[in-house]
């Protein structure tokens, strides 16, 4: 297909490939009318036939395969790719994905029939997996910024290709910034203190952008410190500042419908013209809104121009970035584009199938093994594969359409068939009938196999056809959908007890609408229309087949059992829906225990989009394995690992917490204070970040540092010898961590500095070397607003996981000791605290700046500023805002140590962004270095403060 053919317009500078790209872009930009330039700022940019410029569409989903365009190779979910810890493999996967997208672009019409599949790719996702309950956990690589950035860079490089002038596809990083919850995602604010911002969330984006591998970024739906990400100053002050040295500007896009969210539901701006102008000025170049309708966006931008909220330079800046990207994609040089000859035969090609198998195999993590694995056909000739995932694969929202499926039972059967092994499959699902108490008819005239996906949420699958019961637009129920993959999932239900406790009688409740099934007295049809249990139909639940009993029989007759449990990636944890917890669905846990009771030689395989608390399995079973939803080759990959044809090479990309470990609130983004991730979590996990076992043994020795000391801006070499002590080849991930000892700030328990995946043959040894710049030891110094490497004692650690350190070496950083924090004669931002109690971070203005306010608990809020130098200070002032009087007064108190040195009432300023300065004398001159505490009583905002001293000139 390719781009639509348009009239040739040779002889103009923008068509001359000999000219610098900047000159060509400027020439084309100058030929476009204002309306044509504005039109470029929507996702669906129309063609300009008079100039021979084709239509252009931003954004094709390609997170782990080309999505939404039809059948394509499906690789493991991103979290599964993260488990490989293999940058070369991740780059190869991205190369295959981008080649398939090029093939779709040139040869296949889009499923929706609109335009041509675009070459700008909305991937990878580099949001950190802070909370394993996040509904989109499968989209990220890791909870660690170093690991995420390394794999994100590799995926971007694979997507972009290696040509110096032209891109194969244009990778866009998602989602900027601190996006890790789904519930109310468009109105929730992620509170990021400066250390968390700089050391954690930005740290995943910074290296990818600075490397030049990414061509753009997508703003996130959420707010950060009270300000929507689509108008965040960080788009310019951080993202684009990192890209500047690469010579290419980032092209930043909005998420779908997010521009409109700025007005409703966020109510951050009064109207859409004002909101669009603010987003454009903040750095958004392309508006993804109202599907193909670009006229509304264009009208809002024209209104903003007419009202003086924008000028043409703002339009031109975004339009120029749009055109720069298209030139790099080769659109205007079709004869020079090195990727234009990619044919349709690459889609699901034999080479890509082999790569999908290799990636799926490399992503499998062996969590526990007491000798059951690998299975041997001579010792276990009959294997029972049991559970809802026994031989079924699933597509997630951002996966392509599976060209074929090899489930785990099928993979084992194929692998064992030649040797006479026997594989028995048993799903373990109850088969039931639901009979109307009113009519006596069976629901949908059929029987159902029931699967539970957590919190009692069920799917009802027709026992004869395999299709799911679902609600239709007219509220009727039908059995018609084999694959659950729609934005609104209407195939989930709960069976609730009859209110009066009548035995065997249940109510059928539809999850998405919350309504109950009822029989329409007019025509006898069943519809989801009852708002209360009182008006709902009563159903007699008839158990036709006991799935657990069948599973027990299959396990008892086998030599070993493999129980395959986990999540459905579109139910109870997906985009728009977080998980409520990390426990296995109740019926799945019960099935596992029932099978293990009759067949102790049972291995649990968790196939999931993220961690589960499998405490019981870890304590009672001989083997536990994890895989993500690994794509079309999942079954062959698992079979290879379970049977020992492949060594389990995956390592966990995030912590698996214990079931009784109470996790922080999902909206607590302060990883330091809340104790998120391996860096700050104090309770021992079930399985640690970086954990994964092998079928062979590895030994570490001879950890060496090239020097025992380094300067604050220095670097050193680290080496360690790794040996395979076993009788078979295997892969190990050598993980290099660092930690500060006796730090003046709350330092991580340890922090990943580097890693290397190494494959060794039996008895083979290899020296693994790392270059460790001192900057890997840095923390964000809130007193100076920069990354700082404090002098002092550190440790360099080599580990098999964050909880399995094998070797350590001391390291001393030399240099001048940090000075006390200077607070006299200069403005100190309130958000630059060292510690706090009960604060919320908010926006100082709509455009820039952060402030703090009490968290609303009614208790005072305290900010701690450590080691503040108070050289005879006599006067204190603070920048405050107070919207209304509210209950009680508002007072700001200041203490040096335990001594109250200042207190001032805070007046009503009339708005949360309306600031005034309050001033008061200190109770007496204050001298020396003290821990400074500011306590906020009442409902107001504090942006900054300062002290005056006759000894210090104002800055």
Describe the fold and architecture:
The chain has 955 residues and is of the alpha+beta class. Mean pLDDT is 96; it is low at 1-8. It is built from 19 helices and 47 strands. The strands form 13 sheets. It has a six-stranded mixed β-sheet, sandwiched between helices. It starts with 20 loop residues before the first helix and ends in a 7-residue tail after the last strand. Helix 4 (87-107) runs parallel beside helix 5, helix 6 (194-210) runs parallel beside helix 7 and helix 14 (547-556) runs parallel beside helix 15. Helices cover 21% and strands 28% of the residues.
Give a quick set of tags describing it.
single chain; 955 residues; 6-stranded mixed β-sheet; 19 helices; 6-stranded antiparallel β-sheet; alpha+beta; disordered N terminus
Mean pLDDT value? 96
**Helix tally?**
19
Strand content: 25-35%
Structural class: alpha+beta
Instruction: Tell how many strands the DSSP assignment holds.
Output: 47
Biggest beta sheet summary? 6 strands, mixed
Low-confidence stretches: 1-8
**Gap between N and C termini, in Å?**
63 Å
* Radius of gyration over C-alpha positions, nearest whole angstrom: 30 Å
Shape summary: globular
Spatial order of the strands forming the largest sheet: 10-25-24-23-11-12
Fraction of residues in helices?
10-25%
